[in-house]
Design goal:
Immunoglobulin-like, globular, 0% helix
Length: 188
């Protein structure tokens, strides 16, 4: 019996925000013992036509979603509370807690700092984020998780495209319950 579960997911571009520079965005997940989640996002496209923030340093920064970044929304199955984690190719990150749909609450994220590694060439942008789930307030490894994986991609003109596992009807909304389209079982 393995203590590690793995999944592969494909993010889809919202129909109202096309980006011709991106062919695909895939995400590979590994969940070790229900406590450490590793997400590897792989963007395949013409990277030179995208605004990729240069590496700065690994620290918490708000507003990363205004430019190219990758995101993970995490909740316990059938729970209205959830977390949003944002990962920038700059190495910067953000973490937010929500009591319910877009109803934010402060969280102590000092010990949360995900480990972010980035590889980039002309055709591939790969961002690997390691998240210690047991550092999230209220986390319980015996409860299965629902995940929403997404990305905001900025092209050279400053236009943003929105990518997610599943888009709800209407404008892009990563917080919508329909976007939490991937389930991970409880730690066994």
């Amino acid at each position: 019996m393995s203590a590690r579960t793995q999944s592969l997911a494909i993010l889809r571009c919202h129909q109202d925000t096309p980006c011709t520079a991106v062919k695909t965005i895939k995400a590979a997940l590994s969940n070790k013992h229900g406590r450490v989640l590793t997400i590897t996002y792989v963007l395949d496209g013409i990277v030179d036509r995208l605004r990729i923030p240069p590496y700065r340093s690994a620290h918490r920064v708000d507003g990363l979603w205004r430019h190219t970044c990758f995101e993970a929304f995490i909740s316990a199955k059938n729970d209205a509370e959830y977390y949003e984690l944002d990962f920038s190719p700059s190495g910067e990150w953000a973490a937010y807690g929500f009591r319910d749909y877009r109803e934010s609450e402060a969280i102590d994220a000092d010990g949360l700092a995900p480990k972010i590694d980035v590889q980039c060439n002309a055709e591939i942008l790969e961002l690997n984020a390691v998240i210690h789930l047991d550092r999230l307030p209220g986390f319980r490894p015996e409860v299965g998780l629902s995940l929403g994986l997404s990305a905001v991609i900025e092209d050279l003109s400053g236009s943003l495209s929105y990518w997610a596992l599943k888009h709800p009807p209407g404008k892009p909304d990563f917080h919508h319950a329909d976007a939490f389209a991937l389930e991970i079982g409880a730690a066994g």
